[in-house]
Amino acid sequence: MADALFVVLRKIALSLGEEVLEKIGKEVVQVAPIMTDFEHSMKQIEGELSILQAFIGQVSAQRVSDKVFDAWLDQVRDVAHEVEDIIDEHAYLTAQVVDTGSFFKRKFHQIKNFAAWQRLHSQISRVEARIQRLVEMRDRYGISVGELDRRNNLQLANQFSLSDSAYLTDNTEIVGNVDEIGRLTQWLLEEKQDRSLIAILGMGGLGKTTIASCVYKNKQMRTHFDCHAWVTVSQTYQIEELLREIVIQLIDPRANMASGFMTMSHKRLVEVIKTYLLDKKYFIVLDDIWDKDAWLFLNYAFVKNNYGSKVLITTRRKDVSSLAVDNYIIELKTLQSAESWELFCKKAFRASKDNICPENLRSLAEKIVAKCQGLPLAIATVGSTLSYRELDEQEWTFFYNQLSWQLAHNPELNWISSVLNMSLHELPCYLRSCFLYCSLYPEDYKIRRKRISMLWIAEGLVEERGDGATMEEVARNYLAELTRRSLLQVTERNGCGRAKTFVMHDLVREVTLITAKREKFGIAHSNAGIDQVSHEARRLSIQRGAHSLNSLATSQLRSFILFDTRIPSSGIYDAFSHFRLLRVLCLSFANIEQVPNMITELYNLRYIDLSHTKVKQIQASFSKLRNLQVLDLRFSYVEELPLEITLLSNLRHLYVYRIQNLHARSLNDFSGTKIQGHICCLKNLQSLHVVSANKDLVSQLGNLTLLRSLAIVKVRQSYIAELWNSLTKMPNLSKLFISAWDMDEILDLKKLKPLPDLKNFLLSGKLEGGMLPPMFTKTEKLTRLSVFWSSLEMDPISSLSHMLNLVELVLDGAYGGKQLTFCSGWFPKLKSLHFAYMRRLNLIELEDGTMTSLHLLNLTGLRNLKAVPEGIKYFRSLHEMFMIDMPNEIIERLQGIDSHIVQHIPKIHKFGSSDPQAAGDAATDAQCSFVLLLSAARRRSVCVNTAQQDRYERYLILTK
């Protein structure tokens, strides 16, 4: 092989002349054996990496306070990172070679970059030597990497679990959860013959054990049941030990010893318990259950004897809580602000009369309580720690500013980090890295399902399962799993109930960031000092305070996420020379007007977010980014993508759209981005938003058979047949947005076949004949329908009434008639109804029994409506109502003679036509208009105001 390669390279040199042959002759001799052996070495090193990663994932959570093991594991982690660098560097160099054209040119390019390839070969040799030294160090220092002593681990886990409530041994000190304790007591005391299983669910530190203990110690329970037992299951339970503990608590200890319970098998212990409980009314608490398997043996032991026995379990996992039937589940939430303050004062100022906070400390105390975000364990532990300190403002300020350090190093606060870290340590390796990634977001940040899924995939953290599921679906499953484990809380769901946004509790984020930093997984920079770990971190998020990115730049970075929009463009451009192995680049809202040239040299890039920037042009050299999976240009100034963009064959999601007029109320003011070339080459594309239609594009769309979501604008009637023919070739298409060329273009959809698997459909533009086409009669799976400016002449509601699965309906300027009627039994699953800018509409008739699940009602710009719809009084499930830009007389009636119609609605937002600014803001909040939503999102002021940014981001309906 080496001789053959030498001959090929010699031919290249001969074709270039004798002088060149003489110049590179020595290099050919050197490079031939290296290049020949290189592929074999790369396969070996890739195998080494997979084993290293599996090993780290298996043992990283095993040891607690084992400094020797931790130091050795840190070295293993460094080697794994170095191997990863070698693999990515190889991909980088290979991409450069591929881009050079013919086979001979590629081989010549390898000679030209001989130094880089030789350096990579040397790195492999050094890594192999380091791995060998790690093995020798393990043997030299007697480092055990096998299983830990399970009994010690069990005791440690029990200690941490009990710490969840150790601070509240006195029931008189319990704050909050009054309703939960009352409901739990009622369930336990109710006279029901069947054995009942009751569950308390919540994240670590919420007080699950405390509440269970409160009712367990209640005197009523002691007299109501014949016998009792409390056992802590924990993560590392052994079934024999659990069963023996139950036997010890239920049966006389002297009988235990005499009967030899300590040596019995688990099957024999089950029979003993079952026999003892056969004729008794028992109450057993299983505290801190982590998996359903523990219940298999215990369920058999806890006999169903129809005496009204009760079993109470506490758990952090939703799948475990689902063992409880008949909705016997209490899901704990964080404490309210007033409750948090009361608990903190009881602990921090217990020496003072009435637990009053001194005025000089009140502001600091409120900040500390806010940091705990209603987590009882944190509030009580921090409060107790501060109770031993002087009531000195400077000392308390220092404590608050060093809270992250305190959580990691202060023994008094070990309970908090230990309890919260248990959930992290219990995660399987494929979830652990994904959860660590979530900690890189700022405090209280709403993590979006689609965005975090794409980031995980780009980073290579999502496994390909090969069972037909896309990686996006696997990532969605990861998020569901983290939610079931109470590590992420769902903050918003779409109309179908699917989680849209998640949040990490601040303290969970703090302790997770400590782990991420220690393991060099990543850091979040937020005014803190940057130490050497920062330069070894693989991922970096800049949240605030980074005046210079050069000091933070490192060639080892895989993800760079910018949240601080105040960094000047010059600082951003200068930093990119260091990011050669970057996979993820997020510059949303960055103050840049052009794409840094160095970006197109980052061959390993998989994710680029340039949304909400002033970037106007994408270079043709973007074609070099062959690994790119996501290109996000939403609300940039890019009007057209270069022809070369269609060479990105690995692209999975392409987001490009813009607003021409910030106050758009017309199709003429909204446009997609033009794409030239053969879009049919983008075979892996799943999302395409928003593109301008042309004849070639609509015909080529049919080649994108993996497309699941499409938004296309500037559609002419002459394109419709070809466009629909392409859409029918997309078996996975579930979201479709179509907008006509302009306000005068009439779309004839009468002869089109329905898309039976469509779930979300937005149609904007006039329709032929002023009526909905027949295709709407066969869209049973549709859950969200939005119709804009369609000039319908007939009441469309009856035509849509067969849509039993519809959960959201928007009619904005869509109907020119005077009356809309909803009959009883229609739209049983509808949760959101939005009517906007139908100028002639003067009556909305709502029969009793229609829209029985309605949760949100939005009426906007209905200037001819004479009165508040009387039928609103039938909507008992209605939670929120918006009246925006409505006639002032209706607003007055709503507050007066028509108030009885809406008195059952908890939240009512009223903005008359005389309050246009408030109406505009509220319209944005209520999602009343496709274009209004996009317009509001484009306002640059939101970059500065985080609250406003969060507000509009919630309602970007195109990609969220």
UniProtKB/TrEMBL annotation:
Domain Disease resistance protein winged helix: 440-510
One Pfam short name: WHD_DRP
Top-level taxon: Eukaryota
Positions of the NB-ARC domain: 180-352
Alphabetical list of InterPro entries matching this protein: Apaf_helical, Disease_R_plants, LRR_dom_sf, LRR_R13L4/SHOC2-like, NB-ARC, P-loop_NTPase, RX-like_CC, Rx_N
Domain Disease resistance N-terminal per the UniProt entry, residue ranges: 20-97
Any coiled-coil regions, as ranges: none
GO molecular function, one term: ADP binding
Alphabetical UniProt keywords: Coiled coil, Leucine-rich repeat, Nucleotide-binding, Plant defense, Repeat
Annotated transmembrane regions: none
Domain Disease resistance R13L4/SHOC-2-like LRR, first and last residues per copy: 556-866
BP terms from Gene Ontology: defense response to bacterium; innate immune response-activating signaling pathway; plant-type hypersensitive response
PANTHER family: DISEASE RESISTANCE PROTEIN RP, OS07G0186500 PROTEIN
Entry similarity comment: Belongs to the disease resistance NB-LRR family.
Name of protein: Uncharacterized protein
Organism for this UniProt entry: Paspalum notatum var. saurae
